[in-house]
Amino acid sequence: MTERIAPFAVVNVVCKAHCGRAGPVAVDTHVLCMALRGTLGRSTFKSVAVRTRTPRATTSLFRSGKLVSTGAHTIVEALLAMRRVMLRLMLVLDWDLDVLNVEVNNIVAHSSVNYCINLNLLGIDDAQSGTNRAKWTPDIFEGMRLFAPPTIGRDIAYVIFANGRIIGNRIAAMTRVPALASVFDAMGMHRYVLGREYRAASGVPEKAVIEAHTGRVIAVRQRNKRARQQEHREAKRRKLEASRGAKKHKAELDNPLTGRSVLAE
Q1: Range 85-94 burial, b when 16+ CB lie within 10 A, else e
Q2: What's this model's pTM, rounded to 2 decimal places?
Q3: Which of 14, 28, 60, 176 has fewest C-beta within 10 Å?
């Protein structure tokens, strides 16, 4: 089996900009949410999310006039999505606006290799070398976050999965996407092919190491799946209780025997 990596394909381009004529313009997100038929975020980001079909992207508009586009596959698509949102905003506000100060925040690309990777041995080698470039918490997330050495990768970060799936991010320009595969090969990942590692992680036979590693990954996936199912059941139960409470409250208001009146309240 030949260890090779497929070319990286861009899946997400994150760009930011400002809407204005000569500088940023402050807007009311509550009014724009109704006018642009968007989604108003309240918990994490207080912005209006507007989705466009062509190109397929999501543009978030903040109160300060900042625009953030996600989901596009190219920088041109991200700019086109922001300009389409800006045209709808111009019709609502009757202002002459434009997209200013466009910057690329991040580019995310994915690829895969034709072999499984021993993340346990990779983490052990990183801890023993003292570089601290690998971050892996399998109980929370299956993928290992690995930073490339500054000498060859210039702050490129990868998310590596045991099944051979690879995600590259922290890319500031589209011209650096083709270099992701060469940087990944330069880190010597062929030494961690599952079952053909350059050294054993412990004194147990290689077959036992493979079975333990595979079983650990499966156990983590099952544990995460059970946690997601439990969270979904709890959310469904809370929603059902809220619905029952609302119906009960409405029945009490409509019942004349309770002595309560909607007009009196």
Answers
A1: bbebbeeebe
A2: 0.67
A3: 28
